[in-house]
Every structure is written in structure tokens, then in C-alpha cells.
Design brief:
mainly alpha; 120 residues; globular; 5 helices; 2 strands; single chain
């Protein structure tokens, strides 16, 4: 149940990014669900391989190339899917940063840690 809720929250984050940025287009909530699923799979499978392959460049740029890598993956998913479109590379870089921030905020609010106070 938590996985499905997390998936829905990421789709909502993608819809918010499309609302805030004119360079990102999502054609409905179903497309956002599919795009969130594909983004999650790409981040789970492809990103670790590309991170290792581009490690020297990432070290040379003091970690800034990692933002470019995130943007490239976001842009690639936008080109692969029919209902999800990113209009340019720099829109993809900005959208990936915003998507990450919104998704982190949403999951942090919904799945907030349970604080337990014990008496001494």
C-alpha cells in the first residue's frame, strides 16, 4: 500500500512540475502515473550505471555533472513517452530539480516519521 501511495505522490509531483514550468507537458493524470513509473524504473536501473560511467566527469565538475545527468534522464523519458513531454534540455534539468524537491516534500508530509516520547 505504501508503494502505491508513493507512486501516486510522485505522479502528483509531476503534475505540479507541469503546472509550474511551461517547458514540461503532461496530458492527464494517467500519463503522469506512467511517467512517474518510468522515471522510477530509469532511476533504479539506468542511473546507477551512468553514474559509475560518468564518475570522472562528475568529480572533475565537483558534482555539478550529476544535475546534467538527472536532466538527461528526465529529458529522455519525456521523449520516450507519448503523454509526457519536455520541450528542451534546460527545462529538463530545472524540472528534475523541481520534481525531486516536490516529491521529497510530499512524501515527507505524508510519511512523516512517528515521534515517540518516552517518560524517564
Amino acid at each position: 500500500m505504501r508503494l502505491i501511495l508513493n507512486w501516486i505522490l510522485h505522479a502528483l509531483a509531476l503534475m505540479m512540475v507541469a503546472y509550474l514550468l511551461p517547458g514540461v507537458l503532461v496530458h492527464g493524470f494517467g500519463s503522469a502515473l506512467l511517467a512517474a513509473l518510468i522515471l522510477g524504473l530509469v532511476n533504479m536501473v539506468v542511473r546507477p550505471v551512468l553514474t559509475i560511467l560518468t564518475l570522472p566527469l562528475t568529480i572533475l565538475t565537483l558534482g555539478l555533472f550529476y544535475f546534467v545527468l538527472n536532466g538527461l534522464l528526465f529529458y529522455w523519458v519525456g521523449n520516450v513517452l507519448q503523454g509526457f513531454q519536455v520541450l528542451g534540455f534546460w527545462w529538463a534539468v530545472l524540472a528534475s530539480l523541481l520534481y525531486s524537491a516536490i516529491a521529497t516534500l510530499l512524501t515527507g508530509v505524508v510519511f512523516q516519521p512517528k515521534v515517540r516520547i518516552e517518560r524517564i
